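Ticket 4471: requesting a sanity check on a complex prediction with S-adenosylmethionine. Repro inputs:
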Amino acid sequence: MSANRPEGKWDPGQYLRYGGHRLRPAIELFQRIDMDAPKTCYDIGCGAGEIAIAMTERWPSAEIIGLDASAEMLAKGRSAAGGEKVQWVEADIVGWTPNKLADVIYSNAALHWIDGHEHLFPHLMQQLSPGGILAVQMPLSWGQMSHRLLREVLADGNGGAGYGTEELRQSVGRKWVDDGDVYFDRLRPFADHIDIWECHYLQELSGDDPVLEWVKGSALRPVLTALGEAPASAFLAEYGAALREAYPKRSDGATLFPFGRLFMVARRK
Ligand SMILES: C[S@@+](CC[C@H](N)C(=O)[O-])C[C@H]1O[C@@H](n2cnc3c(N)ncnc32)[C@H](O)[C@@H]1O
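Returned structure tokens:
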């Protein structure tokens, strides 16, 4: 496990609770890879491996590797229909170098967990064969109300005393995704074609406290693990109330949760 990787196990059930909204950008990114017959493709931070399995269908003669640090997520992928066609590898993306150059390196909603993008993105580009594609999507959730409230309640909640340690608050405060032009500059020395875009989805969620449930499947995992049981439930009550106010349930029962994502596809020169 990398020093940067937050503690707390990935829970495939909680993460995939909003599978539709979470899978859509993954598919939209996958469709932007213009490649007929790659030989070696990696899905790094593959999670439960939906796209790694889709790769085996799209490129049946390619070697497809799904890499993730979570044994639980990999187990889900391995047991899914078509999972037997993927090579599942439990490993950390930090310091990862493939055995041979890749034709496709794909990563959906994973690289924002890792620090040091100024080194990571050039490194990934250098693991591609000429003409190879790096395709990445990362959430732009850091600046959203849901994540601003997360930082605020951690810092000032609990009657002003805050929750957790200063170290936890700092790790949650880290701005995990830079602006698109910053990635353009990181990719440019290695790429002959770069496409970077943002997409803002107006997500319709249902049920009670759906935004809290959403965040529980991602950004809240390391926070809840670090807080421990009693402080975590007090924190959840306070954070949940703040989220209900910021994202009210409408009269039709739906809760709208706007969500931004940054996409990039770069071709190795
Ligand atoms: C939000 S999930 C995304 C999973 C999948 N790509 C998808 O789109 O559904 C993030 C995944 O990244 C993995 N991950 C996070 N940091 C990692 C690291 N340093 N090395 C390997 N995997 C990592 C987690 O284990 C998790 O499965």
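Notes from triage: Residues 146 and 218 are 12 Å apart (CA to CA). Leaving this open until the requester confirms.
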